[in-house]
Amino acid sequence: MAREALAQARADAAKRGSVPGQGRRKGPRAPRVPQPGRGGDPKPFGSAIRELMSARGWEQRAAVGGVFGNWPGIVGPELAEHTRPEKFEDGELTVAADSTTWATQLRLLSSTLVKRLNEELGHNTVRRVKVVGPAGPRRTGAWRVR
Known about the structure:
This protein is an alpha+beta fold. The protein has a domain at 82-134. It has seven helices and three strands. The protein has helices at residues 2-16, 45-56, 59-69, 71-75, 77-82, 100-108, 110-121, and strands spanning 83-89, 92-97, 128-132. It has a three-stranded mixed sheet. The N and C termini lie far apart (111 Å). The model has no long low-confidence stretch (mean pLDDT 79).
């Protein structure tokens, strides 16, 4: 019974043009059509990531994330020690300062900071820098004016 099944399988294969155990049949191959996003040569990682970010519209978010990560490189180490970016929404960067003195200093530098950030991120990405001072209550001393 097994021999009959094997003989039948060989006969069916011969009709199709392939005989078991003899490998693939020689002849012209159909050209291989690459599927989008598959196959081909490997791409450099940076190029592949840029294409992905562009396709998904993530360039601006990634650039803003780079500002948050490189804050000392953008504003300088002394200012970065006393300030930190908190959020970016609708062209407005909110920056927190650890004292009212540093908040005032950052407010005076805000137009320069907007120019510097737009150089980094692209034209008109940042329209305004909002500076917030320390969140804690003010310390009251013995000397104050009423």
